[in-house]
Amino acid sequence: MSDSVQAQRRAEIEAKKAKLAELRAARLGRQKSPATPPPVASVSRRDVDDLINSLVGSSSRGNGIDSGDLTPSSSMPGTPALGQPTSLPGPSGLNTSGSGRASRQSDFASDRGSLGTTLVHSTSGTDHVIDRVMTPRSVPDLVDVTQELFELPQRERVVYNKEVQTMTTEPESPQVYEDEIRQRVLAERDVEAERLAREKELDEESVQLDKEIEEEIRELSEDELAGIYSAPEFLQFVEHSSKIVQRALNDNYDIVRDYTIGTETGGEDSEGRVKRVCEFSDDRYVKNRSITAVDWSPKFPELSVAAYNKNPAAVNEPDGIVAVWNLHLLQEPEFVFHSQSDVLSVTFSPFHSNLVFGGTYSGQILLWDTRSKHVPVLKTPLSAAGHTHPVYSMQMVGTQNAHNLITSSTDGMVCSWLVDMLAQPQETLELVHAGHSKTSEVAITTLDFPANETTTFWVGTEEGNVYQAHRYDRAGAKAGLNQYDVYKGHSGPVMGLHFHPLSGPVDFSDLFLSCSVDWTVKLWRAKSLAKPSTTPQTIAPIYSFDEADDYVYDVKWHPEHPALFGMVDGSGKFDLWNLNTDTEVPVVSTPVGSGRAINKLAWDRKEGRRAALGGSDGRLYIYDIGDMAVPRDNEWNDLQKTVSSVLGGAQSNGTL
Amino acid sequence: MTPELEQTLTLLSSHRSFLGYILMSRGHPYSIIRHSGAIFEGEHGRKYARAVGKIVESVQGSLEELGGDGNDGDDVRFLRIRTKKHELMISPDDKYLLAVLHDPSTA
């Protein structure tokens, strides 16, 4: 019985050893893979192996000794009387059928063992005494000593009584034996416990071995370090994993925060409803550059993209940079793209979250893929087929299955591209203004399509006028610039043009805003497409916002709130206007950054809670406008009233 | 040590709540490639490294057990261990491991 236990133990250890070896082999394999730095001095591994062997070896030797000591059956076969009790099937059957307690089982074992040793000891080889010893064993009194023994002696009695019958049983005091046996039992128990403890130790030792292998921390030599540092995969790993960790660091949320602990409220949180979320800047990539364009990812609300012009101090760096920033990673851009020329306009593809388009000063249109490296995956040739002048404006129009990228350059060229074929434009359209008093060239600075419109668009120009243009011939209007309608109001180059986004019960899609270096933002109503003009006429703005004290660089309607729009100017202010609240002054005016000009503004595409502001100081600021982004139900009707009232004002002004 | 690498690690260290990092090679045995921060200096740093190694191996081992015999076992990508005082973030790959310790209460 105890033999089998022992064997089991040994098997376990054997298995453990095998596992260890396997583990080591696996590690060895990992080390052998080619790119791994050559570290792992084989000597040290051998040391560990030796250590394992010595530990495992010695312990198994010790185990053998133990089993010799502790297995009474092996020392017993000489005595015939003993063979029987040990081979008795009864107790083991009882063990399994009896209570499932493990401790009980061990009790049985030790008890039986004790019986055996008792015999050997006291008999010292004389048969006669053996018999005498045997007899008291059969005394039923023993049964009272331990309950577990109850069945055991009964069986024995059946066997022995026959042989021993002739002997006269001397009623020697059973007490003595009983005491002796009890002592033996106790002693044996101790030994047994010790054996168990030692086996446990053994197990622990092998586990410990395992641990030691894990725990061993090796010092690397200079050569090994150099090898690791120069491995490209190591660089890649550091790049990648530090990004992950930084995202987690920027999380700024302590997941075990205890809200029952009060902290002082108020302070900066309560001041102003427009809060700065973060600012993106990076000394490595975008130092000494200004932001020329910004956009938000249509797929991932935490990603925004900014385009940068050249860094005059660094001639070896690419002129144009485009950086994709992640709200969860403040210290460095998620992706950086290069361009040989300043990038002036940038847009995420609304239909492919991996693609970013850029328009450059040289006139090239570039396409970058976030799955690829820094360089563009596609670019247009520098030829007369496409743009040869700076591309300040681009927009994607159409649907998932049929979309075009529309780009415009300052020589009046408007191109339409298929996004997967930038070798040549699908269509080109040259805007010319034949009736203009000075030049026929239309220098496009900005362009926008009304909501749900893909063929007719409006352009802002350097001279300050806004024009309507068609991509194709259409009911009474030829493709190209509509020369009859002149939206005249700005006295300087138009920097931004934005149509009202279609997002509510009332359609305001004919309203658009424009901003200019003449310090004003103007609200216009576009002429209906259904009634094309046939004679030249001038269209005046329906309202002018004259609050700014500097060039107004960009203006954008809010994507959700119909009466809300934001503008940024040359003094670094971010003004938020709500036409339903006030048409004279902005509802909130926020100084941004260092006071240097803010070039571009973009609302996030989902709820419009966040605005990305691209500064000429090269920083991309993200602001949160909070609940102001949420429109009330009557906002649309209110805006309708506001518009009609300013319309009335404009008309009365016109008559004056 | 390339300047880019240096810069990346400096950037990482510049975070407000940052306490230190250890870069380790997941060879046999684990070895420290580089560390920073007072908490990872000397013997204490090695202890940390051992602990990190043990944690990663044990988690990876458990994942492999869960994956069963088939080769569809999972891999550890990122471990975040919040303790009373600190937070330990471990980002392992096949050959290397980056562990960063920070104090979220200062973030």
UniProtKB/TrEMBL annotation, chain A:
Keyword Repeat: yes
Residue stretches of biased makeup (Polar residues): 84-108
Location(s), subcellular: Cytoplasm
UniProt keyword annotation of Phosphoprotein present: no
SUPFAM superfamilies per UniProt: WD40 repeat-like
Stretch list, region Disordered: 24-122
Superkingdom of origin: Eukaryota
UniProt-listed Gene3D superfamilies: YVTN repeat-like/Quinoprotein amine dehydrogenase (2.130.10.10)
Pfam families in UniProt: WD40 (PF00400)
InterPro entries membership: Dynein_IC, WD40/YVTN_repeat-like_dom_sf, WD40_repeat_dom_sf, WD40_rpt
Key words of the record: Cytoplasm, Repeat, WD repeat
WD repeats: 487-534
Name this protein carries in UniProt: Dynein intermediate chain
UniProt organism field: Hohenbuehelia grisea
UniProtKB/TrEMBL annotation, chain B:
Residues annotated as signal peptide: none
Domain Roadblock/LAMTOR2: 44-101
Membrane-spanning intervals of the chain: none
SUPFAM superfamilies the UniProt entry points to: Roadblock/LC7 domain (SSF103196)
Entry superkingdom: Eukaryota
Matches recorded under InterPro entries: Roadblock/LAMTOR2_dom
Family to which this protein belongs: Belongs to the GAMAD family.
Record protein name field: Roadblock/LAMTOR2 domain-containing protein
Species the sequence originates in: Hohenbuehelia grisea
